């Protein structure tokens, strides 16, 4: 079994910064892509940023230049540094990891519990 535990959400004023963390634990052989998604009220969930084990990174256009994704493979942790936050960044942010639990077998997708980020104007 694999668990993803997030931390770091909260309330911040526009222009402020927050850092989200997501620790992956349990039966882990390797972790491939690690991602952050968000879902605002009344909107579909969207991919915010993704980082592969090899270091490939991609961002949603709406957060480029403001958000930074990184990972610490030794700690099985992915981070999302968010700066110059805007009210439209308000959403529930969830981490997602593609995990291989053994040398063989397909990788599986796991989700964190979700963290509320609220940006006030």
Describe the protein in words:
By secondary structure, the protein is mainly beta. The chain contains no helices and eleven strands. Strands 2, 4, 5, 6, 9, 10 and 11 form a seven-stranded mixed β-sheet that branches. The chain has a four-stranded antiparallel β-sheet with strand order 1-3-8-7, with no helix packed on it. The mean pLDDT is 96.
Short description:
This protein has 121 residues and is mostly beta strands.
How would you sum up the global shape? elongated
Taken in chain order, the helices and strands follow as: EEEEEEEEEEE
Largest sheet: 7 strands, mixed
Structural class: mainly beta
CA radius of gyration: 14 Å
Q: Spans with pLDDT under 50 lasting ≥5 residues? A: none
Percent of sequence in beta strands: over 45%
Give me the count of strands. Answer: 11
Residue-averaged pLDDT: 96
Q: Number of helical segments?
A: 0
Helix content: under 10%
Give the N-to-C terminal Cα separation: 41 Å
Give the oligomer, counting copies of the same chain as homo and different chains as hetero.
single chain
Properties at a glance:
4-stranded antiparallel beta sheet, 121 residues, mainly beta
Strand-helix topology:
Elements: E1 2-7, E2 10-13, E3 18-26, E4 30-39, E5 46-51, E6 57-59, E7 67-72, E8 77-82, E9 91-100, E10 108-111, E11 115-120
Parallel strand pairs: 2-11
Antiparallel strand pairs: 1-3, 3-8, 4-5, 4-9, 5-6, 7-8, 9-10, 9-11
């Amino acid at each position: 079994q694999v668990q993803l535990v997030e931390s770091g959400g909260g309330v911040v004023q526009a222009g402020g910064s927050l850092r989200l963390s997501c620790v992956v634990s349990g039966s882990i052989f390797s972790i491939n892509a690690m991602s952050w998604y968000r879902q605002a009220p009344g909107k579909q969930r969207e991919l915010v940023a993704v980082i592969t084990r090899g270091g490939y990174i991609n961002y949603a256009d709406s957060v480029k230049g403001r958000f930074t994704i990184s990972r610490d493979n030794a700690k099985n942790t992915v981070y999302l540094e968010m700066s110059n936050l805007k009210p439209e960044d308000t959403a529930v942010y969830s981490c997602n990891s593609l995990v291989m639990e053994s040398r063989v077998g397909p990788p599986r997708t796991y989700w964190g519990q979700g963290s509320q980020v609220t940006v006030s104007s």
